[in-house]
Design goal:
The structure is a single chain. This protein is mostly beta strands and 110 residues long. The chain has one domain. It is 4% helix and 41% strand. The protein has a 3-stranded antiparallel beta sheet with strand order 4-1-6, with no helix packed on it. The protein has a 3-stranded antiparallel beta sheet with strand order 3-2-5, with no helix packed on it.
Length: 110
Amino acid sequence: MDVVLYWTQPNFGALSAEVRWLLETKCAGAGDVNPAFIDADPDVTGVQAQVVTGMAPGTPHALVISNSTTLVDTGCSVGKVLTLQISRDTTDAFAAGVDLYGAELTVGRN
């Protein structure tokens, strides 16, 4: 599955550094009760949250497009609902806030 993130940096001056987004997925079908995000607990699943990076351009309000072609959707199948959780990695190099405008998912067909 592919994911594209659309984001900008607000007007905080000409800062330019890498921004890291953390993505986690979960799927639920009829009768499922509170399924966990597959990457939420690395001690249980052995998998870390997936990372998508992009460079803040140093130009306030310039649109940035970051993408990944390897979003993991383990446990998803026909008839289930996919939930995508997107958060900011607070240890990235960009010291200011950013605005996430949206995410585009593309699911391949076999």
